[in-house]
Design brief:
- The chain is of the alpha/beta class.
- The protein contains nine helices and 13 strands.
- The protein has a seven-stranded parallel beta sheet, with helices on both faces. The protein has a two-stranded parallel ribbon with strand order 7-10.
- Residues 3-238 form the NAD-dependent epimerase/dehydratase domain.
- This is NAD-dependent dehydratase.
- Its main location: Golgi.
């Protein structure tokens, strides 16, 4: 197929582009690089069916596609708090423009949404039919609420025009091509541990998270897009194995053979207390399941970050 991946130079997008190319698809990667990186797609330029377009998807552009993966958006607290207006626009107006193209071209469309639509959840674990508990005017609202609006637009195109759409709510994901300074838990901890610097925990460490290795997440995206009878469906994708933030910090210190201490800072505003997906729907309808154990995924990620730090040190 001819496939467009917006946000394709980002962390998850770059892995998705590679997986699509390996499956034989023609891929147009579209990114304005405000949080993505051309380094993430450098190896993909050798594929004859890969093309990169530097473009902001809140502005119209010409393309032909049979499938559109819409991943474009800052996704880390650092990214969307530095670019709040851009985040709102790409998840609202950008989503609308791409949905119009999907309708016109009769293409499949996948919206990469987020577990942040559940906010600080009162239901645990979170199922797809949970409406969420979100602060609409807080510092994270530019991301949380614009993703919710993107979901609304997507479902209206399904109801009004029967556009071939599906929504995936992505929970915490980690792996190579993460930005070291994006403010998320795993990149923060690994970067600090490799330098034997203090690992910073916001709060007392009792908040919980569930982390999914990026290759498993990408397989879920592929299944959600191409598996039969996914039109109009919403899927949680993530790892239901739940640990405290303190446990993650201690595990990463051990795997890095680090001497880093742990320091505690005040909790961040509107940071969820607990986060764990119910993935039974994706398992049942898509046949999707987790294949990479947490420690194996962390070892791969630590190895990648270690090589990145060595490369940067050599350059400087």
């Amino acid at each position: 197929m001819r496939v467009v991946v917006t946000g394709g130079a980002g962390f998850i997008g770059s892995h998705l582009c590679k997986r699509l190319l390996e499956a034989g698809h023609h891929v147009l990667c579209v990114d304005n690089l405000i949080t993505g990186s051309e380094r993430n797609i450098a190896e993909l330029r050798h594929y004859p069916h890969f093309a990169f377009l530097y473009h902001d998807v809140t502005q119209p552009f010409a393309f032909e596609a049979e499938a559109i993966f819409h991943l474009a958006s800052p996704a880390s607290p650092v990214g969307y708090m530095e670019h709040p207006i851009e985040t709102i626009l790409v998840n609202s107006h950008g989503t609308y423009l791409l949905l119009e193209e999907a309708r016109r071209q009769q293409a499949r469309f996948l919206l990469a949404s987020t577990s942040e639509v559940y906010g600080d959840p009162l239901e645990h674990p979170q199922r797809e039919d949970y409406w969420g508990h979100v602060n609409p005017i807080g510092p994270r609202a530019c991301y949380d609420e614009s993703k919710r609006l993107g979901e609304t637009l997507t479902m209206e195109f399904y109801r009004q025009y029967r556009t071939d759409v599906r929504i995936v709510r992505i929970f915490n994901t980690y792996g190579p091509n993460s930005q070291p300074n994006d403010g998320r838990m795993i990149p923060n901890f690994i970067t600090q541990a490799l330098k034997n610097e203090p690992l910073t925990i916001y709060g007392d460490g009792s908040k919980t998270r569930s982390i999914c290795y990026v290759s498993d997440l990408v397989e879920g995206l592929m299944l959600a897009m191409f598996h039969p009878q996914t039109t109009g469906e919403v899927f949680n994708l993530g790892n239901p194995e739940e640990h405290t933030v303190l446990e993650f910090a201690q595990t990463i210190i051990r795997l890095c053979h680090s001497s880093s201490p742990i320091v505690f800072e005040p909790a961040r505003v509107d940071d969820p207390e607990r986060r764990r997906p119910d993935i039974s729907k994706a398992c049942r309808l898509l046949g999707w399941h987790i294949t990479v154990p947490m420690e194996e995924g962390l070892r791969r990620t630590i190895e990648w970050f270690s090589k990145e730090q060595s490369s940067l040190s050599a350059i400087s």
